[in-house]
Amino acid sequence: MTATGAIVEEGARGAPSGPWWWARRRSMVLDVALALVSALECLLEGVSFAHGVGMPAELGGLIGVPVGAALVVRRRWPVAVVLISIATTPAEMGFLLGIVGLYSLAASEVPRRIIAVLSAASLLGTLVVAVARFHQDMAQDGYHPGWWSMLAISVLLALGLTAPPVLMGLYVGARRRLVESLRERADGLERELSLLADRAEERAVWARNEERTRIAREMHDVVAHRVSLMVVHAAALQAVALKDPEKASRNAGLVGDMGRQALTELREMLGVLRTSQDGSPAAERPGAAESQRLAEVAAAVSARARAASGVPVVSAVSGVPGVPVAAVVDGGPTLEGLEDLVGQSRDAGMAVELSVMGEERSYAPGVERTAYRVVQEALTNVHKHAPGAKAVVRLAHRDAEVALQVENGPSDGGGTDAGLPSGGNGLVGMRERVTALGGVFVSGPTDAGGFRVSAVIPDAAAA
Question: Which residue spans traverse the membrane (predicted)?
Fold first, then answer.
């Protein structure tokens, strides 16, 4: 790690950055203090060395001051500090310089080979100087010990001055690298956790949007078809009210039945939304009163239509026994209800033909519900956009999938245009339902001027 990188890293962690190559100000203070002590030591040792070799004392002091002050750059250039220490070893100068320099070198990011070579050179230089000094001192005192004893003492002295700082520096450097790696790993884990939190939040937003879309699609499928049939019957009722009272009464009865079925399905969906996970009723939510008032208004409209034709009024909200219940079981409608669905469109004046191919069999609940909703929405679109047109519903049972097609011809103008509004979401909802199960959905106009809706849905239970 370079000195600039260390400064930037320390600054990023919030520590005050020091000048030049120091990462912190206290590091600078420590190095300056060590340099001053080392310079004073080398000054005294330089004067002593100058006396010994017959040099002026001032020259020895001038040489010792910059040598000792070299410790100020021990963090930036540890190799240079050790080389200066080795060079001044014959002059017996720089005791503190050598120890601190070797420690700084071993603790730095210098390659291990360079550390080993310089440490060995320092050890050898110290050993040679120690042997020579012992021999000289013993000769002056008139004592002549054996070479082996003098060499052993010199080796111990050289190892004592070289090995401890090198080993200490290696330990501190390894510990520093370990801490740095742990810190980087912690930072990496923190970034990963942040990314996971962001992704979890995105998935939560996506799930909420998907749930809103699903609820909107269910509400559209449940209400739009039956309300569209109610509007068609109401338009026919208005057209024949004076000419054929019997037919008007029958149409009014159909309007009431459709309204009760729509309210029953809507009430079941609202009941699911109002029920907590443990099955107990949830607390009142904002909008619950509005939903109840909406249901009551729809019931009142249905009752008024039946009252106008002389048909007995039965409350659809109170749940009085004898009220027809929509063919909605747990999980929604199934393919068994297609006959009733087609029959409702026939009662509304549409010419509908149902063709079933293949051996009838049951599919996964989601597959049957989706197939039913596709046919339901397709017939609703025929009521809206092609009044009076003939429609053909084809259903094919296959081993691992169910295929269906709803095709209508052009509007012949024979039907009554009820002026049904269109939100433009019917085809989108059908496509979303089919593709969510891995199926294929195709829709578009035919050459004859009509419209065709086709879907192939794989059987999830068989898969």
Answer: 32-57, 77-102, 114-135, 147-173
pLDDT tens sequence across 386-412 = 888 899 999 999 888 999 999 998 876
**Average pLDDT value for residue range 87-91:** 82
Confidence category of residue 109, pLDDT binned at 50, 70, 90: confident
Token representation of residue 49? 């060395």
Instruction: Using pLDDT thresholds of 50, 70 and 90, give the confidence band for residue 452.
Output: very high
Using 50, 70 and 90 to split pLDDT, how confident is the model at 216? confident
78-84 CB contacts, 8 Å cutoff, 24+ apart? 78/104, 78/105, 78/108, 78/110, 79/105, 79/110, 79/114, 79/118, 81/105, 82/118, 82/122, 83/118
> 0.70 exceeded by the pTM?
no
228-252 pLDDT, tens digit per residue, is 777 776 776 666 666 777 777 777 7
What was the pLDDT predicted at 424?
63
Buried b (16+ CB within 10 A) or exposed e, 106-139: bbbebeeeebeebbebbbebbbebbbeebeeeee
450, 434, 423, 442: which is closest to 220 by C-alpha?
423
Cβ-Cβ contacts under 8 Å for 239 (sequence gap 6 or more): 416
Token pair listed for 88? 């001044």
Q: Residue 174 CA to chain centroid, in angstroms?
A: 36
Q: Is residue 370 predicted with pLDDT exceeding 60?
A: yes
End-to-end CA distance of the chain: 57
Q: What angle do CA 52, 57, 63 make, to 5 degrees?
A: 95
